[in-house]
Design a protein that fits this description.
Distance between the termini of chain B: 20 Å
Order of helices and strands of chain A: EEEEEEEE
Order of helices and strands of chain B: HHEHHEEEEHEEEEEHEHEHEEEEEEH
Strand content of chain A: over 45%
Distance between the termini of chain A: 31 Å
CATH superfamily of chain B: Trypsin-like serine proteases
Radius of gyration of chain B: 18 Å
Oligomer: heterodimer
Structural class of chain A: mainly beta
Number of helices of chain B: 9
Strand content of chain B: 25-35%
Largest sheet of chain A: 4 strands, antiparallel
Number of domains of chain B: 1
Helix content of chain B: 10-25%
CATH topology of chain B: Thrombin, subunit H
CATH class of chain B: Mainly Beta
Shape of chain B: globular
Radius of gyration of chain A: 12 Å
Strand order of the largest sheet of chain A: 4-2-6-7
Helix content of chain A: under 10%
């Protein structure tokens, strides 16, 4: 199961090199963080179905979080909009 | 990546069998730390580092004394049963003097996976060319993303990094070690690995000792973690200490606050002013975070991986 996501700034432009990490989930999760690509996207494995919370911190230090529901039937998706 | 690195581990049979989690661990050998050839060394005489702004364990215990065992975490209301890396309040403290030992023996890791995706983690020196980290920092398992699983392509190691400042420069490695329990099975009980550098940066910055601690030496003891979390300003080092809440033969559970990016950090005891790792931090959980225990098998592999 994969969580597909994108990080955009206030004007809709993709944010590269933003750090994306798990804040919570249904099972213990690896304490590693992923960096978004040049197009602002990321793909992160979810080990089991359930409710997750993801955090995102931009290179400028802005942080936001989003809840994601992973059903196991299809990839989940999430979008971060950074308010600056 | 060459598959020969997977074959470098002579403990394949250990990793291929289910762990005996209830088996008691007796106290075992220790490898000694080194403060390195660089200058400043910070001295700590107690169980925790002498860091300004760190709440004392006594104050934390006093503030958390009311029995809330029957209450659910607020996150349960939104997300159901949760696993999270901050245990109650976030008590991490930023380390500013990262060029001093022991902080310079921790390294910020910039990991490039086989599919080109980028990740951050933490590692710590045990010898001139070898750092220890989580297995999932050197070998990705069960990602679900085509081309991502397997040995990572490279890791840039930045000891003592402080934001954009690299007091000891950086070194990039393409040589890694782990065990079949992780590379083959993805079993979290074997989630540890090593980075072998082409340079001897460890001689400059120093390294941590590591030791096999017994169950009684670990249970309730104070452990320390410093690393590079992703939720703080980029590349800054953060420290916290708290108590071990439980152990089994392969894992140590503790109430130290961590966040994504701190995978691979040393979980260490301060003994008579010296630092000895007793686990490798790897996972965030709902009531405790956890790391791979330095038991005798892990100890032997760490010693074997020294370069």
């Amino acid at each position: 199961m994969v969580i597909n996501g994108i990080v955009r700034d206030r004007s809709g432009r993709p944010v590269a090199q933003a750090r994306v990490y798990f804040l919570s989930g249904p099972v213990p999760l690896p304490d590693i963080a992923l960096l978004t690509g040049a197009d602002g996207t990321f793909r992160l494995a979810a080990p089991v179905a359930g409710s997750y919370s993801l955090g995102c911190t931009t290179p400028d230090g802005e942080s936001v979080s989003r809840a994601v529901e992973v059903t196991g039937e299809a990839d989940a998706s999430v979008s971060f909009e950074i308010p600056y | 990546m060459s598959d020969t690195r997977a074959l470098d581990n002579p403990h394949e049979s250990v990793a291929s069998e289910p762990p005996e989690l209830d088996k008691p661990v007796e106290a075992g050998p220790s490898e000694e730390p080194s403060t390195g050839e660089a200058g400043e060394v910070e001295v700590s005489t107690g169980e925790v580092e002498a860091v300004e702004g760190l709440r004392s364990l006594d104050s934390v215990i006093a503030e958390t004394a009311p029995d809330t065992s029957g209450l659910e975490d607020i996150g349960v209301a939104s997300f159901g049963a949760t696993a999270e890396s901050i245990i109650q309040a976030d008590d991490r403290v930023q380390i500013h003097n990262t060029s001093a030992y022991p902080w310079r023996a921790h390294a910020s890791l910039l990991i490039t996976a086989a599919d080109g995706s980028s990740w951050i983690g933490t590692g710590w020196f045990i010898s001139p060319r070898t750092l220890i980290t989580a297995g999932h920092c050197v070998f990705i398992k069960n990602s679900g993303v085509p081309g991502r699983d397997g040995w990572v392509r490279s890791i840039r190691v930045m000891p003592g990094r402080n934001g954009s400042t690299l007091p000891y420069g950086s070194s990039t490695s393409t040589s890694f070690r782990s065990v079949t329990g992780w590379t083959g099975s993805g079993n979290h009980n074997y989630d540890y690995g090593a980075i072998i550098l082409p340079t001897t940066l460890g001689s400059t910055v120093g390294w941590f000792g590591y030791s096999v601690a017994s169950d009684s030496q670990l249970n309730g003891s104070v452990v320390n973690i410093s690393g590079y979390p992703g939720d703080k300003p980029a590349g800054t080092q953060w420290y916290h200490s708290n108590r071990v809440t439980s152990v089994n033969s392969t894992k140590v559970y503790y109430s130290v606050d961590t966040m994504g990016g701190q995978s691979g950090s040393a979980v260490y005891h301060l003994r008579d002013g010296s630092r000895y790792a007793v686990a490798v931090h790897a996972y965030g959980g709902a009531t405790a975070n956890s790391g791979t225990r330095v038991n005798r098998e892990v100890f032997d592999n760490l010693s074997r991986w020294k370069a």
